[in-house]
Amino acid sequence: MTDEIPDIDLAVHGRTEHRREVLKKLAGGIAGSALLGTLPWFAPLQAAPAGGAPSDRVRVGIIGPGSRGQFLLEHLLHTPAVEIAALCDVYQPHLDDGQRAIGKPVAQYKDYRRLLEDTSIDAVVIATPLYLHAPMCLAAFDAGKSVYCEKSLALTIDDCKAVARAAANSTKTFQIGHQRLFHRSTLYALKQVMAGDLGPITQIRAYWHRNTAWRRPVPSADLEALFNWRLYRKYSAGLMTELASHHLHVANWFLDAHPLACVGYGSINYWKDGRDVFDNVNVIYKYPKGVSFVYDSLSSNRFYGLEVQLLGPKGTLELETAKYYSENPPPAPGIVQLINQIEKGTLEAVPIGGPSWVPDLKKDTKGTPLPEDPDRDDGTGLSLAAFVNAVRLGRRAPYMIDHAYRSGVAALMGVMAMEEQREVQWPGNYSA
Amino acid sequence: MPVRVYHHTFFAMNTRFSLVFPEISGNLGRILSLEVRRYVDAQEEMTSRFRQGALARINAQAFDGAARVPNALWDVLMQCRRHWEQTYGLFDIALGAYRRRASDAPARSSRPTEHARPNRQYGLDKVVFDEREQSVRFTAPGLVLDLGGIGKGLALKGVKAILERNGVDQAFVSFGESSILALGEHPNGGPWHIGLADVPNTDLPLSNEAMSVSGQTPGREHIVDPRTGAWANGPRMLAVVGECPVEAEVLSTALYIASPAERPRLLSRYGKVRVLDVRSDADFIPTPIYEGSAV
Ligand SMILES: NC(=O)c1ccc[n+]([C@@H]2O[C@H](COP(=O)([O-])OP(=O)(O)OC[C@H]3O[C@@H](n4cnc5c(N)ncnc54)[C@H](O)[C@@H]3O)[C@@H](O)[C@H]2O)c1
Known about the structure:
The complex is a heterodimer. By secondary structure, chain A is of the alpha/beta class. Helices cover about 35% and strands about 20% of the residues of chain A. Chain A has helices at about 15-30, 35-40, 65-75, 90-100, 110-115, 135-140, 155-170, 185-195, 225, 240-255, 335-345, 360-365, 380-395, 400-420, and strands at about 60-65, 80-90, 105-110, 125, 145-150, 175, 205-210, 260-265, 280-285, 290-300, 305-310, 315-320, 325, 350-355, 370, 425. In chain A, strand 2, helix 4 (about 90-100) and strand 3 form a beta-alpha-beta unit. Chain A is globular. Chain B is an alpha+beta fold. Chain B folds into 2 domains: about 5-40 and about 150-290, T-fold, CATH 3.10.520.10; about 55-140, T-fold (Orthogonal Bundle), CATH 1.10.3980. Chain B has helices at about 25-45, 55-60, 70-85, 95-105, 110-115, 150-165, 245-255, 265, and strands at about 5-10, 15-20, 65-70, 125-130, 135-140, 170-175, 180-185, 190-195, 200-205, 210-215, 235-240, 275-280. The model of chain B is unreliable at about 105-120, about 280-290 and about 290-295 (pLDDT under 50). The chains are: A alpha/beta, B alpha+beta. Strand 14 (about 350-355) of chain A pairs parallel with strand 8 of chain B, so a sheet runs across the interface. Nicotinamide-adenine-dinucleotide (NAD) binds near residues 64, 68, 69 and 90 of chain A.
């Protein structure tokens, strides 16, 4: 991974016409650049965005227009070529919300299998509780659909393998909801890592701390599982799959490896409210070359918030606050001038002497900001645009299965380590 | 033929330390910087009153009773005492308590009234050196030794020795831009030409020489006049160029504190140096440049 990533404006937001413009510019920027060597999943964005022709249309069905599903729907409504053709949810109010956002009547289903029977639908977006990802993805591939599935990949390692295998065997597009793959400041951080600004990464640390019950108010008792599925092990693997999977994804991606093993402890030490997933998790992953990824997540304190930190002998990158911190101070302008002068073979007096320099605390310890999208788009818009382009062109999204599989499995390894109180080894690849 | 330059800048002694090696391989550059960095860090550990090294321990103990001084630091203290004597007491490492007090006070001041008020509470005359026991004892409570006025010069002298030992005969070393060492000649021939950052058209040719710059930045004053205990009120900037980085460092401080009339007497006690006095009312006064004569 030594190719240069050009600093392209990745802001994909706003209405369709604006997105079309940005995507057109982006397509031009990617063409002929070395970017695809490093970010192969950008390949579908090389194609100019679709025009209005009916043959360009991608008919999408959304399964689970809940909190995340509704957000994805908003993006899709303004993504060129997309026609939202159907909605599926077991909860009528969410179907109504989706319908209202779309603005014109579309087919509604309570059972996703009925939606999959509709042969006019090209692709599905799955944003349901974790335990449903595997059965829905597998059925969708069976039905010949392209799939955009939210993270984490699946509830069990067997299911992760099954979905990854099915995705690999399908000719259709599969994409996972790891929007950081398309997030401007994250890509810039990768560029810095590749340029050697950290030296080799020697450790990754991440945490996600909140002070919240993570509970949604339930209109009636029978809806508890549907609303609060995250809190029950039957439907969810808790903090590891819901939160840690994002940072594990970053670790796997930046280290270009999957974890070899992990150990950890977790418990319910504060929210003893009937949930059966841990309210705090603490896991250490072992990566190749002696690198560790240290992760913890809390539900009873939010002082430290969330962060993922990449550490090396030359510097630190913090991706959530999008900052780079150098271990070394910047040289004086006079030193830079002197070096240029020697290199160019010129000689004139270099203005450098003066009272002792002292670190400017603001700049030197507060870090250098990484370029962000002006609207702080987190990559979701571009992620969906890439997916839709891939579907339209009948292409697969390169490397996506690996991103999905590595982070999905890594999250579950952490859960197993804590639940089974043992060191858990990488369970092998999905094709094995 | 473009010249390959190795450069490394790192934090040390609350400032930055830059090494520039022309015509050297990246690998040798890295090895050398590492050695320099280790040396400077060890030096800081020993001489900083803010680290937990030998000087910090002595500062904590020497009023309650004589404190033993390890060899390397003893050597430094002896040099400091010699320079104290040679500068008529103007270079004084025992004024740390004034600095602490001054920077604690909300209104820092070098008002003339303070200059007029003699305050001889601290100073090297309040430190008893026992050469047989190699120990020091403070006779004034609260006295603090502070090597800030010589530490960079000592480090540059040590770095110079490291580089020479490694066969490096061409290098530019800047310690916080206030202490500079120019080893050998500029790769394009002749001396290194060094100016002052905020003073247009200054040009000091340096060849196998060190430069030290003293000046008080408002709000970050650090030079105390030992005769008054208040911030010294010297020119805007004063630079000393000489062969020895330690002497340049000591002299830039002492000459900054001394009145212009006192300078020749002081310089007569040192080897050959060049002095550049930048007055506050002018950009740059190229003269007087004093040339001290050998002791
Ligand atoms: N990429 C991200 O940053 C991000 C952010 C939030 C959530 N997510 C992921 O999105 C997914 C959904 O999370 P959420 O917060 O939107 O949850 P949610 O509970 O708000 O939404 C889930 C939706 O699925 C529906 N649903 C449940 N069972 C169904 C079934 N059998 N058939 C059809 N619909 C069914 C629910 O009624 C609900 O509308 C999770 O996998 C989560 O990890 C990703």
